[in-house]
Design brief:
Shape: globular
Strand content: 35-45%
Helix content: under 10%
Radius of gyration: 21 Å
Largest sheet: 6 strands, mixed
Distance between the termini: 12 Å
Number of helices: 3
Length: 428
């Protein structure tokens, strides 16, 4: 059963979404160079039938058990220099987002739709305006809303250094500044914290740079991913992920159709996998034995057995025929893979499927436009989805041509830029 619990509309399309590690808020980016933070509505933590029967007040209790605070072994920078938006829990006005009671989701494969009277409008409590296009963003892994020091997130944008933002005030805490051979700022294409939160890995062309979280500035370690003879992993490092079961293992995806699996201790790859096209996302299973990858203009999410055969053991299909990042996610136990799709559907798979093409055990229509972002709550059966994609104006057509292509044009110009929260009961 998938039940729509909250929805918000924006004027610009979203670029994915991700729950905070403590599960109390959702972070997303928009095409107009903004980072938006949404608090999870209190009623989402309450079953709909309970909320309808009695008035339940959720105050400052932590419904998720909270991630352990202060995971990093050093002090997190707390500089407060630029105040950008409202507080982490206050209302922020003037963002172009309004509450809505859109039609309930079309549900298939045994999923039930929601009562529209239960919907809540989502409004961002924090808006951070970046200076250029947002390439990537991520939460500090030890983030806990009851320890303000840990409440921060990282972003990388075109022609700018890495920014560490305060999730309560929107203040810029500090910057991490990579420079190129001309001593000019070089923008990272991807970013990720180590599982303990002590270091930042940033992806560049033919290289990864490593920053110490407690030492902002330009000092970093430069790790080449490609050798002079063409060996190793060439191209732009487009995504980075760490294995929670083995923090010394991390994977880097490249737009040059490769995925490198590295050992942090030796700083060398122990496997370089050939992908079908430019890689847009990599993710390890919770036990670290499987690696899931998604690519540009490729409809299959691949599952690699990196412990034994280092080969593809399963494929999970969805519609993704553009260069846009169309995300997927795993439930905390690694049993269910949730995949967004270009046609607005969300597909649920048995993530442990072994052998050939997997079939989804549940599918539901989440959006009328591309469902480019999906994020599973870290401890509750909740799902956040984000939608939208870049639209290009169609050329002028004659009356005869327009009548033939009216249906396809209508489909092409369907615009929906929304963030939605769902209750899921079909995870395994």
């Amino acid at each position: 059963m998938a039940r729509l619990r909250a929805v918000g509309e924006l004027s610009s399309f979203l670029k994915g979404c991700v729950w905070s590690p403590d599960g109390l808020c959702v972070l997303t980016a928009t095409d107009d160079e903004q980072l938006l933070l949404f608090n999870t509505p209190h009623s989402v933590f309450v079953p709909p039938q309970v909320a309808q029967q009695e008035s339940v007040a959720i105050t400052s209790t932590d419904p998720t058990g909270a991630v352990e605070a202060g995971a990093a072994s050093c002090e997190i920078p707390r500089d407060s220099t630029v105040t950008v938006g409202g507080g982490h829990g206050g209302a922020h006005a003037g963002t172009g987002l309004t509450a809505t009671s859109t039609d309930s989701a079309t549900v298939a494969a045994g999923l039930a739709s929601t009562d529209r009277t239960q919907l809540e409008g989502l409004r961002p409590v924090l808006t951070v305006q970046e200076g250029e296009m947002v390439y990537d963003y991520c939460w500090f892994p030890g983030m806990n809303s009851y320890d303000p020091t840990t409440c921060c997130f990282l972003s990388t944008t075109r022609d700018h250094p890495l920014h560490l933002w305060d999730a309560f005030t929107g203040a810029l805490r500090c910057t991490y500044r990579p420079y190129d051979h001309l001593d000019e700022i070089a923008a990272a294409y991807s970013v990720a914290f180590t599982p303990d939160g002590s270091r930042i890995f940033a992806g560049f062309k033919d290289a990864v740079r490593v920053f110490d979280v407690c030492r902002p500035g330009r000092q970093c370690t430069h790790r080449k991913t490609a050798g002079r003879k063409g060996d190793g992993q060439r191209g732009i490092v487009s995504c980075i992920a760490f294995a929670a079961a083995d923090p010394a293992t991390y994977a880097c995806g490249s737009y040059s159709k490769t995925v490198g699996v590295y050992d942090d201790r030796t700083k060398e790859p122990w496997a370089v996998l050939e992908a079908e096209s430019g890689v847009t996302q990599v993710m390890f299973s919770p036990d670290g034995t499987l690696l899931y990858t998604a690519c540009r203009q490729a409809s299959d999410i691949l599952c690699w057995d990196i412990r034994n055969t280092v080969e593809v053991v399963a494929r999970f299909g969805r519609q993704a025929t553009t260069n846009q990042r169309v995300k997927f996610d795993l439930t905390p136990n690694g049993a269910t893979l949730v995949a967004g799709s270009q046609d607005g559907t969300v597909l649920l798979y048995d993530a442990r499927h072994d052998g050939g093409n997997a079939e989804p055990y549940a599918v539901f229509k989440a959006h009328e436009d591309s469902a480019n972002g999906v994020s599973v709550h870290p401890s509750l059966p909740l799902l956040a989805t984000a939608s939208g994609q870049r639209k290009f104006a169609a050329p002028m057509l004659s009356d005869a041509d327009s009548s033939d292509d009216s249906s396809s044009d209508e489909e092409q110009h369907t615009v929906e830029n929304t963030l939605k929260l769902w209750s899921l009961d079909h995870t395994r």
